[in-house]
Amino acid sequence: MYRALSESDNTYDGIFIAAIKTTGIFCRPSCPARTPLRRNVEFFPSADFALSAGYRPCKRCRPLAPAGDAPAWLRSLLDMVEEDPAARITDADLRSMKYDPVRVRRWFKKHHGMTFQAYLRARRLGLAIGRIRHGEDQARTAFGHGYESLSGFREAFGRIFNITPGRSSGAVNMYINRILTPLGPMVAGATDEGLCLLEFADRRMLETQLRTLRRRMNCTITPGRNEHLDRIDEELMEYFNGSLREFKVEIVVPGTEFQKQVWSGLRCIPYGRTLSYEQLAGDINRPGAVRAVGRANGDNRIAIVIPCHRVIGADGRLTGYGGGLWRKRYLLELEKS
Ligand SMILES: [Zn+2]
Question: How many CB atoms lie within 10 A of CB 57?
Fold first, then answer.
């Protein structure tokens, strides 16, 4: 990949993305810009990984444009996003600016494999936590983002996640961090007590879940890491290489009694096995509550560790999964093998 990049080899365009640590920019392999040193480049399978990792698209090779360039009708919209990547642009906003939301969504789906809203979320997320790396402390992260102070960073972070600055006593702090997995970047959150959030970065629910947690736990949220986040990072790596079958990380799951029952029921499903919603409802002595069990399953905030992917339809079909069916299939196959 590095050789392709240094030769600006366009036959690799679309195969991988090169991100330049020193400038925070990501490029196509064919980018005409001068090639940085090998140690300053990291590679990703696609643009959404680079976005979630906090990189900006290069203005020269425009890695987010399809081969060639973005169509004229879309260019002003892309420019607007680049000017203020933290901004929220709803379908109603699009319409008021004379864009057809359906057409915009289709174009993004076709060229980037994600909807426009997913793209915006990836952009915001990348902006907020992308630069956090092992060994970087919070302050350095804040300054690395170009914010003037730590409080400035917190404010910007709050704005990006639509979290109002803490008025609460806020004795509890939740650190959030990004973890790269073979299924794409995930966002993990943990207080001193344990892990309370693990979700795929492109999930629409993510921002809502963060706000729910903040309210329920009366906590402040800051980018950073603690022992539980280090632990889950390690455990996930072992899980994905097949050497870990049971997660040991401490978890914190605020919720209703019923939700907690369902979630602990999920944790009893052994690695490599599946249950139907009916069986799960029976297992937790709530045989009549199949639908409610399904809902609580969907409300799970700690993906993989609380293995909601191990619940399938009574007829053996996979049924839904918040992170997408392809991920569920991957997880089940990983555990079967
Ligand atoms: Zn470039």
Answer: 22
- Distance from the alpha carbon of residue 85 to the mean position of ligand 1, in angstroms: 19
Would you say the C-alpha torsion 33, 35, 41, 44 has a positive or negative sign?
positive
- Tell me, in angstroms, the distance from the centre of ligand 1 to residue 104's CA: 24
Cβ partners under 8 Å of residue 11, min gap 6 = 4
Q: 11-28, pLDDT tens digit by residue?
A: 787 778 999 988 889 999
Q: Look up residue 114 and give its amino acid.
A: M
Burial (CB count <10 Å: 0-12, 13-18, 19+), residue 266: buried
Cα atoms in the 13 Å half-sphere on the side-chain side of 195: 27
| 296: phi then psi, degrees, rounded to nearest 5 | -65, -35
DSSP class of residue 45? Answer: S
Active site residues: 27, 308
What's the pLDDT tens digit per position in 161-171? Answer: 555 444 444 56
Q: Write the pLDDT tens digit of every residue in 33-50.
A: 889 999 999 998 888 788
**DSSP-H helix ranges across 149-256:** 150-160, 205-217, 227-240
CA angle, 111 then 113 then 115, to 5°: 95
For the chain, which domains are there? 2-128 (3.40.10.10), 138-240 (3.30.160), 257-336 (1.10.10.10)
Using CA atoms, how far apart are residues 129 and 307, in angstroms rounded to an integer? 25
**Residue 140 neighbours by CB distance under 10 Å:** 13
Q: So what's the pLDDT on residue 66?
A: 55
Tokens of 299: 């409300």
pLDDT at 69: 59
pTM: 0.62
Whole-number Å distance between alpha carbons of 265 and 197:
18
pLDDT at residue 156 in the model: 55
Separation of CA 32 and ligand 1 centre (Å): 7
- Rounded-to-integer distance, Cα 178 and Cα 130, Å: 7
Maximum distance among all Cα pairs of the chain, rounded to whole angstroms: 64
